Amino acid sequence: MSDVIERYRDPCLFESLVRRIGRHSPRRPLTLMHVCGTHENAVARFGIRNLLPDWLRIIAGPGCPVCVCPPADINAAVQLALDHDAVIATFGDMVNVPADDVSLADARADGGDVRVVYSAADAVTIARKEKDRQVVFFAVGFETTACTSAAVALAQPPENLSMLVSHRLIPPALDALERIDGLCIDGFLLPGHVLAVTGTGSYVEFCKANSTAAVVAGFEAVDIMLGVGSLVDMIIRGESDVQNAYPRAVRSDGNRRALQAVNQAFDTVDSAWRGLGVIPASGLALQKDLSHMDASGRFDIRTDKVIADDPPGCECSSVMTGLKEPESCALFGTACRPDSPKGPCMVSSEGTCRNRYFFERA
Amino acid sequence: MRNKEKETILLGHGSGGRLTHELIRDVFLEKLANPVLGFLGDSGILPETEGRIAITTDSFVVSPLFFAGGDIGTLAVNGTVNDLAVSGAIPKYLSLGAIIEEGFPVADLKRIVSSIARSAEESGVIVVAGDTKVVERGKGDGLFLSMSGTGIMRNGYPPQRPPGPGDSVIVSGPVGDHGAVILASRAHLETADSFGSDCAAVTSLVQALFDEGIVPRFMRDPTRGGLAGVLCDLAQDTSAGVEVMEQHVPVKPEVETICNITGVDPLYLACEGRVVAVVDSSQSDRAVDVWKRSGAGDGAACIGKLTDNERGRVIIRTRYGGARHLMRLTSEILPRIC
After folding, report:
1. Do B334 and A359 touch (CB under 8 A)?
2. Which of A88, A176, B94, B176 has the smallest number of CB atoms closer than 10 Å to its CB?
3. Listed residue (A99, A95, A202, A107) closest to A140, CA to CA
4. ipTM higher than 0.90?
5. Is B138 on the interface with A (CB under 8 A)?
6. Do residues B271 and B221 make contact, with C-beta atoms less than 8 angstroms apart?
7. B328: which chain A residues are within 8 Å (Cβ-Cβ)?
């Protein structure tokens, strides 16, 4: 397996792909957008932006699951930890993102029981072990993690387990991006993790409707350059379609079992995104027969407080939608740094600002 | 009826009475006895020594207590010995504090004390003072160890010439093994039996350099905070720039895989048996060679240099021609979402 991956890390192959892209001359600047925190991390970590020709730009869209999570949901998780004495089980970076200046890590420091888990199944294990506690799985992430939440919800988990569902879906976000004034995207680099679940098929309609090109890409340096190269080719040829540059993980029909689980466990609902507002049918909610597992029904969570997406001066919303580069935010690198972050994009390891700060100022 | 007190730590083991006495005698002295400790007074009385004395202290709260390649006992001894060794001292004496949670299995405690004894013997150090406390169930995580150590400083160390631009940065082996083992265990990732923590004493590595007449200008063991943390300290302390070639940093394939799955950077993962040193660039090849030949530094490598550029900062040159800054960890190591 490692030999296979090593081929996708080959600096010579990478360089030849970079050179190949450089031979194009499209006579106008091209802007590609990815919508994946792991892509942002890889693009920045490998120093890819510095190697692209002047006419080609890769910008980051709303692909960091931690960053797009609306403050109201984080605030609900904090309430559950502090006011309802529930064990909050959630994924890594989620604990550090503040809402109204309070993060789950802060809640933990104030006595809340917040635990980092590696999968939804870990939350089940906690609930089984600690039967006298209410355990809430704060379910965040896109289609990639939604299917694992669905699998847990459908497998008759222990009664003391509930879910605070904050899953979001990528296709409706792409639609929303197309409607943002002043945002001009020539093509999308689609996230390999998400499309391994959904398949490429569901994106064809989006590309046709919006006359845009999209390529699904993996996460090694060569994977990304293969994706970027194919996308540039498609844009220059004027194609409105989806290509698969990550065939070792992604199929056109996706992972049927995973999709079936998502469809069985969840309904799509209109949902708020940090930075994008409410997007129709862009989130998931537990279906009626599983609603007893919904933490927002099981606990009395206050939802009256309106919390701004961005703290004062922070421009994470514009960064997340690709309207602004991190460097154009007045706080970037001065008042907002990885060790004193103001907004979610500087907190998460998948956040655009954090990656830009660490990797691209060198 | 089972003899509960022989199998499980009870609050009575911390009372200072009969059970405490038996615990010390049957579990700790059984393995750690030596003329200084055997006296069981309120202090260990050490023989007269010449030279400057180095002293270090550390606490060990690792979870899980037992991991591939070691346990909290080996970690405590090697961690303490290594702090002394990389300070330029020859480690001599240890003190041990054990905070045990009520209900902890005596068999596990015995196993850990055996590890302490074995690791101490391997490093040529002895435990000369000790203390045990028992806390109520729920108020500890099984077992916490606290260890202090002393050693005799080598003459002429640290050298007068501090590390500066032009010097080479070398590492004694692959980085991140220990951190990756702990990460894998917490993430329930199965790893090959052959892959374990690098937990070991680095005394032989340090000695090998001095035996060859190579006096490092800086030495550290990259534990918590990993290689990145040490390099950031180096840049800050010397006000030089530190430039590291990513492809020269040795990382085992197993560590690479665990990092790929969890999204953690191996440069931030703890090592428990490696040395990072700065040597004169004219000596770096020889130093790496000495380490390789010593048996304890098979994967040793020269990973970069100190420069006049970007003073006070660490730059990593990637194998794809890009560059990035390396900074200290800003919070706990967290796995990514997908």
Report:
1. no
2. A176
3. A95
4. no
5. no
6. yes
7. 339
Say how far apart CA B302 and CA B288 lie, in whole Å.
7
Q: Does the pLDDT at position A341 exceed 90? A: no
**Which residues 254-313 of B have a C-beta within 8 angstroms of A?**
256-257, 260, 262-263, 310
Reported as a single tens digit per residue, the pLDDT across B103-146 is: 999 999 999 999 999 999 999 999 999 999 999 999 999 999 99
Which domains, ranges and CATH numbers included, belong to chain A?
2-64+177-244 (3.40.50.11750)
From A49, which residue of chain B is nearest by alpha-carbon distance? B322
Q: Is the pLDDT confidence value at B334 over 80? A: no
pLDDT band (50, 70, 90) for residue A1:
low
Q: Which fold has domain B4-153?
A: 60s Ribosomal Protein L30; Chain: A; (3.30.1330)
Taking 90 as the threshold, does the pLDDT of residue A282 lie above it? yes
The residue-averaged pLDDT of A266-278 equals 95
pLDDT of residue B336: 66
Interface test with B, best of A349, A354, A357 (most B CBs within 10 A): A349
Q: How far is CA A246 from CA A105, A191, A193, A229, in A?
A: 36, 10, 10, 13
Q: Is A138 on the interface with B (CB under 8 A)?
A: no
Chain A residues lying within 8 Å of B316, measured CB to CB: 362
**B107 at interface of A, judged by CB pairs closer than 8 A:** no
Closest approach of chain A CAs to the CA of B245, in angstroms?
13
Put simply, whether A12 touches B (Cβ < 8 Å) is: no
Distance CA A46, CA B158 (A): 38
Q: Cα–Cα distance between B157 and B331 in angstroms, integer?
A: 34
pLDDT tens by residue, A15-58: 999 999 999 999 999 999 999 989 998 898 888 888 899 999 99
Q: Is B192 on the interface with A (CB under 8 A)?
A: no
B322 in A contact zone (CB under 8 Å): yes
Least confident of A107-116, A166-175, B36-45, B90-99: B36-45
**Other Cβ atoms closer than 10 A to A256:** 11
Token look-up 């997340």 returns A320
Numbered ranges of CATH 3.90.650.10 in chain B? 168-326
Q: Are B338 and A141 an interchain contact pair (Cβ–Cβ within 8 Å)? A: yes
Could you say which architecture CATH assigns to the domain B168-326?
Alpha-Beta Complex (3.90)
Question: Residue A217: which residues within 8 A CB-CB, separation 6 or more?
Answer: A34, A39, A189, A190, A192, A223, A224, A226, A227, A228, A245, A246
* Cβ-Cβ contacts under 8 Å, A96 against chain B: 331, 334
Asked whether A344 and A312 are in contact (CB, 8 A), the reply is: no
Confidence of residue A298 (pLDDT cuts 50, 70, 90): very high
Residue B93 and residue B128 in contact, taking contact as beta carbons nearer than 8 Å: yes
Beta bridge partners of B219: B277
